[in-house]
Design a protein that fits this description.
Blueprint lengths: L16 H23 L3 H9 L7 H8 L3 H13 L3 E5 L7 E5 L1 H23 L3 H27 L2
Antiparallel strand pairs: 1-2
Amino acid sequence: MAKNKHMKPPPQDEYGLVKACRALHAVVDQLDATICDKVGISRNDLRCLNLLEHGAILPKDIAEKLDLTSGSVTALLDRLEKKGLIQRKSHPEDRRAILIEATPKVFMELGEMYRNMGEAVVDLANGYGSQEATQAAKHLNDMIGAFEGVIKGLRDND
């Protein structure tokens, strides 16, 4: 990489937090790739299914959250519907709109894989004292907030 005299040097990571965050991101990325391979879907397909975890949403919300065009979302939804992972249903308040929701097949196919991850995290936390586990959750949530701030700053600079 060429040196740029305007670039700041990387921050000192005396606590190993940056390294740990990067490693966590890498392992979650590997988990997602493995799940995609096992289910036979793309990364964007998985991201879409994750958006449906808490209920039905509009296709335009999927497009916005995944930064996809409406045509790309239509193709993505067609693929997932063909695999029986999502269904389109009428919006109860707007006859012209449709909602996208996960089918029970999603929870059967992906549920066990994510349940294994959840159980591993709970087992790890059970090895901590309750105060230490609460602090760990606080630190992770603080990291999420910090990353969201960086994302906002990058988007605001567009």
